[in-house]
Design brief:
CATH topology: TerB-like
Number of helices: 8
Shape: elongated
Strand content: under 5%
CATH superfamily: TerB-like
Structural class: mainly alpha
Number of strands: 0
CATH class: Mainly Alpha
Order of helices and strands: HHHHHHHH
Number of domains: 1
Helix content: over 70%
Length: 149
């Protein structure tokens, strides 16, 4: 009888094993959103690409080769995506609010890297911020921080 009870608990209440791919999935999700920002105004500037690589390397502590591989994978994911939810839902589950705000800051940095803010770039930061439940105050604060305002 005790064995049956133990078996029941083992089958129905066992915690799922952690996903060893989770850190890589999170990196890909973040990189895909950052790449989306780079393409948002239909013009990819060298400054935006440089900022993208810099942010990915800084945030995830990656080498240049690892960054290039992540960017290539994230470009594929971005092209296959039908919406932002597949990226933001994973980020919502795993990131702290501070990490989410840092991602919003990175989006602003890429948006402003070419020296001008397109309305579609601002739309994307707003949309991602909302999907990540980043408070509006943090959305504005990071914009002003990056824009020097």
């Amino acid at each position: 009888m005790f064995d049956q009870i133990k078996l029941f608990f083992d089958r129905h209440l066992a915690l799922p094993a952690p996903d060893p791919e989770l850190p890589h999935k999170l990196q890909t999700a973040c990189a895909a959103l950052l790449i989306e920002m780079m393409y948002m105004d239909d013009r990819v500037h060298d400054e935006e690409r440089d900022m993208l690589e810099s942010r990915i390397q800084d945030v995830f502590s990656l080498t240049q080769q690892d960054t290039n591989e992540l960017v290539a994978l994230a470009v594929q994911q971005r092209e296959q995506a039908t919406d932002y939810y597949q990226f933001t839902s994973l980020i919502n589950k795993e990131f702290t609010m501070e990490q989410k705000i840092d991602l919003v800051r990175s989006l602003w940095q890429i948006a402003y890297a070419d020296g001008e803010l397109d309305e579609m770039e601002e739309y994307l930061v707003r949309k991602v911020s909302e999907l990540l439940y980043v408070p509006h105050q943090a959305f504005i604060m990071t914009k002003n921080e990056v824009n020097g305002g």
